[in-house]
Design brief:
This is Branched-chain amino acid ABC transporter permease. It is found in: Cell membrane. GO terms for molecular function: L-isoleucine transmembrane transporter activity; L-leucine transmembrane transporter activity; L-phenylalanine transmembrane transporter activity; L-valine transmembrane transporter activity. By secondary structure, the protein is of the alpha+beta class. Helix content is 56%, strand content 13%. It has twelve helices and 13 strands. Strand 4 and strand 5 form a beta hairpin. The longest helix is centred in the middle third of the chain and has 36 residues.
């Protein structure tokens, strides 16, 4: 077993080393990425002036929507987006946010966010001048984006829910499986030149393998030693923190796009505008979720997994190899999480804390749908994704995630077992 652990550690170290790039900053800088509905915006002028009004530099965004301006020292700066250079059909989401005051600290590279939206959909908190037609067009667009986000959350939530259902473990390191899947695909696609589709398949295989190895040599050993679920949950938090900072050290703090399907022109389908990759990604996500769900219902392994989730002791007494079933669940959960990471990276680029940033929404989807139920995770995740996007009709974009967690609290007050969960008697 010791050799296997060493081999696993060496493999993980080799993977992150291949991803390696200097994670430390070579000085202070301002940078950002301009995107409209997930697509990079090229050729937009960004200018930076110091607090005393002296100009620092002016740059234009590249083909991937990124820009960067080194600054001479730490301090306050004004960053201005030249709205006349925005492409036709694109505008600032909030017209009064064309100039931002930004504080840069010593040794810090500060990200600056300019929120963009299709022309006619921007505003400042009220929609009194918005026509009924444009309002419903926006509802349709946000509904589509909500389904897109919800399916990505559902992919991650299904693996988390299956692991919880069969082992009772609340795995806070699950988000790092998403990050690792995205980074593995980036390694093969952007670094080694493998087409993204094949890179994604390799990343899913790596995710499944790591899921198996995790349970075979780590979580399974903890179960054999009789570790409590609370102790294992705390260990998962420590593992998540460790992996996150390993990613930061080797991958760096900046966001990076895949080499393929990065700057696709949008297509119009009725009131919905999106890149072709979004439609294809949603089809893949839905197909995978349906396949995994049917496998749970129709296959012997799926029925065994449901038996283990209901009563592990009874399942073992009836001849089911509980450890083998749990190992399969970890393998499937790791593979599906890696696929979710690839899809998330395709939608918003790759960074070291992407899994952590979506983990709270994954837990919300799992809890809302019903802990330990795969289809509940799907339903709960779709509700979370839709609510997050549609809530921007009435609240600022910065508060949309808070709204999703609020609806989770409200549902739990009236239906503690979740949408598809079952009531359990205690005692």
């Amino acid at each position: 077993m010791r050799r296997a652990v060493i081999a696993f550690t060496a493999f993980l170290g080799g993977l992150v080393l291949l991803l390696a790039s200097p994670a430390w900053a070579e000085g202070e800088a301002l940078k950002g990425t301009l995107q409209n509905q997930g697509q990079p915006v090229n050729g937009v002028k960004i200018s930076v002036v110091a607090e005393d009004g002296s100009p620092v530099a002016a740059v234009t965004t590249g083909a991937d929507g990124t820009w960067e301006v080194p600054v001479p020292k730490a301090g306050k700066f004004k960053v201005t987006l030249d709205q006349t250079t925005l492409p036709s059909g694109v505008a600032l989401k909030f017209k009064d946010k064309g100039t931002l005051d930004v504080q840069v600290y010593e040794g810090n590279q500060r990200n600056v966010l300019f929120a963009l939206a299709p022309a006619g959909q921007q505003g400042s908190g009220n929609t009194s001048g918005e026509t009924s037609s444009s309002f419903w067009d926006r509802v349709a667009q946000l509904t589509f984006e909500g389904f897109n986000l919800g399916l990505i959350i559902a992919l991650a939530a299904m693996g988390l829910s299956l692991v919880f259902g069969t082992t009772g473990l609340t795995n806070f390191a699950h988000g790092e499986l998403l990050t690792l899947g995205a980074m593995a695909a980036y390694l093969f696609n952007a670094t080694l030149g493998v087409p993204l589709i094949l890179a994604a398949v390799i990343a899913v295989a790596i995710g499944g393998g790591l899921g198996y190895l995790q349970d075979r040599f780590f979580w399974g050993q903890l179960r054999k030693r009789g570790s409590s679920l609370v102790a294992m949950m705390i260990i998962s938090i420590g593992l998540a923190l460790f992996l996150r900072y390993v990613f930061l050290f080797f991958f760096g703090g900046e966001s990076r796009p895949f080499a393929d399907y990065n700057a696709q022109p949008g297509v119009q389908v009725g009131p919905i505008s999106a890149a072709p990759k979004n439609f294809i990604a949603m089809a893949i996500e839905l197909a995978v979720l349906v396949i995994v769900g049917l496998a749970l219902l129709k296959t012997r392994t799926g029925k065994a997994a449901r038996a283990v989730a209901d009563n592990p002791a009874l399942a073992a007494s009836s001849g089911i190899n509980v450890e083998r079933v749990i190992r399969i669940i970890w393998t499937v959960g790791g593979a599906v999480a890696a696929l979710a990471g690839v899809m998330l990276g395709l939608a918003q680029n790759i960074n070291f804390q992407m899994g952590f940033q979506i983990l709270l929404l994954v837990f919300a989807g799992v809890t809302l749908g019903g802990l330990g139920t795969a289809f509940g995770a799907l339903v709960g995740s779709l509700v979370v994704g839709l609510f997050i996007q549609l809530s921007t009709l009435v609240v600022p974009t910065e508060l949309k995630t808070v709204g999703a967690l609020l609806v989770l609290i409200l549902v739990m007050l009236f239906r503690p077992q979740g949408i598809l969960g079952r009531r359990e008697r205690i005692g």
